[in-house]
From TrEMBL:
<dbReference type="InterPro" id="IPR049561">
    <property type="entry name" value="NSUN5_7_fdxn-like"/>
</dbReference>
<dbReference type="Pfam" id="PF21148">
    <property type="entry name" value="NSUN5_fdxn-like"/>
</dbReference>
<dbReference type="InterPro" id="IPR042620">
    <property type="entry name" value="NSUN7"/>
</dbReference>
<protein>
    <submittedName>
        <fullName>NSUN7 methyltransferase</fullName>
    </submittedName>
</protein>
<feature type="domain" description="NOL1/NOP2/NSUN 5/7 ferredoxin-like">
    <location>
        <begin position="179"/>
        <end position="227"/>
    </location>
</feature>
<keyword id="KW-0808">Transferase</keyword>
<keyword id="KW-0489">Methyltransferase</keyword>
<dbReference type="GO" id="GO:0032259">
    <property type="term" value="P:methylation"/>
</dbReference>
<dbReference type="GO" id="GO:0008168">
    <property type="term" value="F:methyltransferase activity"/>
</dbReference>
Length: 246
């Protein structure tokens, strides 16, 4: 079996990812939430300083923050319904971290996060992570009540309609990557992809799952089927910044 594309199991993120995602969420969360008088996010007047380990960490931090933003109303309702919030030991300035980590906890089906022995731990992340996990049963029950209340088969029901339509359009678009010619050549990229089980085709009309095409106008751009987006982002070619997502 040549193909080496796999889905990464959801075990959580390093503490630094949660910290940066919370800072991003703090600046983008909506103040129009129906729970705005009950859930307080503290002062976000100053732009947060963020230190990303690498481009992969930056991308994951933004993805986590925007995932929490999509489900902000649902996450706030879960916190309030379960009585997990307010918690007087958690200041308003850490509410964004609480919401971001709650999104990740439900995304892992309320399973315990695996922490690497090499990871640099952050006290606030550890405290909130343990706090949320200790209430996982109540939070899962609150999520179930929300789904029953709104007759929702999945949490995707809670995505705002305008954003849902945007995501539908975006998900149908092919995925494009620039070849970072400072690190790798087109020939070496093609060789690497072939070893992973990908097949080169002449055009997008020939796409059939593990296939790709070279852009007809920009020969340092590769185009892949939209269905491969998540798997592609886990390839070493991408994590090593040899291919750059357009």
């Amino acid at each position: 079996e040549k193909r080496a594309v796999t889905q990464i199991e959801k075990n959580g993120y390093p503490d630094s990812i949660y910290v940066n995602a919370a800072k991003i969420f703090q600046g983008i969360h909506t103040e129009e939430s129906k729970h705005r008088n009950l859930v307080r996010y503290g002062d976000n007047a100053e732009s947060p300083m963020m230190a990303f380990k690498d481009e992969h960490s930056r991308r994951v931090s933004y993805e986590l923050a925007f995932s929490a933003l999509k489900y902000q109303v649902l996450l706030e309702e879960m916190l309030l319904d379960s009585k997990v919030y307010p918690c007087y030991s958690i200041p308003d300035e850490l509410t964004s971290l609480l919401v971001v980590m709650l999104y990740d906890l439900q995304d892992r089906k309320f399973q315990k996060r695996k922490i690497s022995s090499e990871e640099e731990l952050v006290a606030e992340v550890q405290e909130i992570g343990q706090y949320l996990y200790s209430y996982r049963t109540k939070l899962a029950a609150a999520l179930a009540r929300c789904r029953i209340k709104y007759d929702a088969l999945s949490i995707e029901y809670f995505v705002p309609e305008t954003l849902f339509k945007q995501e539908q359009r975006a998900s149908a678009l092919p995925v494009c990557f620039w070849i970072n010619t400072l690190k790798i050549s087109l020939e070496d990229v093609i060789r690497d992809l072939e070893m992973k089980g990908f097949t080169k085709v002449e055009s997008m009309s020939d796409f059939d799952h593990y296939t790709y095409a070279v852009d007809q106008h920009c020969h340092d751009v590769l185009v892949f089927p939209s269905s491969l987006r998540e798997e592609l982002l886990n390839l070493d070619l991408i994590t090593d910044c040899k291919l750059l997502l357009q």
